[in-house]
Please model this.
Amino acid sequence: MSWVHEAISSGLLFTLVFGMSATVEIEHLRTQIRNRKAILTGILVQFIILPFFGFIAVKALNMDSALGITLMVITSSPGGSYSNWWCSMFNADLALSVTMTAISTTVSTIMLPLNLALYARHIYEDDVVDNVDWASLFIALAIVISAIGVGLCCSAKIHSRWFNLLANKIGNLAGLSLIAFSIFVSHATNSHEKLWNHDWRFFVGVACPCVLGLATANIISTLNKLKKPERVTVSVESCYQNAGIATSVAINV
Model:
């Protein structure tokens, strides 16, 4: 039934990203594409600083290969599909969020495997890195990119405030459904392994890159004098990574 789970997860992921992208008015998107400070800050934190934090956490805590590789994939991934959802919930700059997600997902097709190969080979044997399911990784990236493209095209063609609001509701519903489905599948496939059975290194390792990345993104965006909604967006985009990509990799590590 793994293919069924994967199909449902991919469908919900597409619907979530599509809904958030179709919420954005094209005029706002065109404005945010020229917001170089915010976009470059996000790329710097996402693909240079955060992967390094992930590597330090894995190295310092001596994590096993399954946990370490998964954490390094997460810290090297683009902004997650939920990042657009959170930005919508927090009244941050959603147009900037969708723009950053689109750009970071495109950039990640090069930077994600580059960072993973660079850092993982410094910790684990080559065969561990070679066993990563790269196909699933790039499929997840393709789903996000295509959903953003379709959503933005629909927003541009329909050009209706009513449609934008409907798309936002659909995206929010898909986001909640994807969270619930992920929890269900996790319990169904790993019923023997409970979250609280992990030792302290698991919780510290998972938390540290996110907390450090969040603080770094806030400091850099503040120094760049970004507007407050833009600071929230940059912080969320920089530190809330696409966990679906890491999940597809973790299953095959």
About this structure: The two ends are 19 Å apart (CA to CA). The chain has a mean pLDDT of 79. The chain has twelve helices and no strands.
